[in-house]
Amino acid sequence: MAGDSSPETSADLPDVCVVTHPLAAAGENATRSLLDILGAITGVALVTADLPADSEIRDRRELVELTRKGAGDSVPVAAARFLLNQLRMCRVLADRDEAVVLFFGATSYLLPILAARLLGKTVLVEPRGDVPLTLRLNWEQRMPVPLARTLAGLVRALERVGFALADGVVTYTPEMARQLGLHPEAPNVYPTGARYVRTDEFAIERPYADRDRVVGFLGRLDEEKGVRELARVAERLPDDVTFRFIGDGDLREWLEGELSEEIAAGRVELTGWVDHDDVPAQLNDLALLVLPSQPTEGLPTTILEALACGTPVLASPVSGVPDVVKEGETGFCIDSREPATLAARIESILAARDLDTVSSNGRELIASEYSFEAACARYRAILRAVGA
User: Fold this and answer.
1) Under DSSP, is residue 310 helix (H, G, I), strand (E, B) or coil?
2) pLDDT at position 3, please?
3) CATH number of the domain at 16-196+371-385, out of 3.10.20.600, 3.30.1060.10, 3.40.50.2000, 3.30.390.10?
């Protein structure tokens, strides 16, 4: 079961073909979430590349996989495969019967977007985050900065044309739409397509008043997640506060070395990899989750899951985050990633008297607006609005 319940499929809604770019683990999770929503209200199929071999999607959804080859390390190889995948998608779409094609993350796939329009299909595009910025930051580590910015600019231009050609653009939240240069009140923008949370699994199991002073980070332990800054933060927190790194990644060994004294004293904990089924228990053990999110992310699922568990979040106010993490109401916003400033901010939050209220507000927000039923209602309204 995808969520608390599975609404009956709406017979009056068109079937949807979801098109994505090659999927890594994070993209697979977001895509599975979208397919669960659409599958509950209408027929849905997925066209993608490089789907993980053990993905649940293989057994649950109709799937067309274009290639099992990665994008490659060199820019010319990646560009060639990018073009080849688009041509393959055009051929696949010509053979599909679905009236709606939803490009999820693949917002710069201009050729299949154009082909779908020419085939008379209704086209929706839904960014998962700021892909051109993500690519630019990645490419700047591998090539001269001017070249990286030029290439990312080309991808940005392709994405903007894709937005213009589409019948509708779906974003997670209104603020995400603004940060992508879209007006959330424009007639072809649908700014409330955020993912859902399994509110039966992610729930308050441990009352907030019973939680210890444990502050945590949950995610990949790598550079882009701000893990090095968080290590410096953990060193500065009072002895009665424990900082817990939940997850695994390239910086695991570095953390073990840098924070060896704090780990030995019990002031820092590293859990290693945690299965997703065990994440609710981890979140219920925290008094505060700290996520210095990158501007590349649309709306981290971890934030929604934490709030569902009644765990206040301290996060960077980027993309769709401010629509969910509302200062002093459902969470708190990071105004500086400088370690001393961030550590002081954490201390002040933990000393606040109204954290019980913040905890319950977060849960209420998720239960009312980000449940499975609420997500199905949003996408049902979007499909009806585009008039497919």
Assistant:
1) coil
2) 42
3) 3.40.50.2000
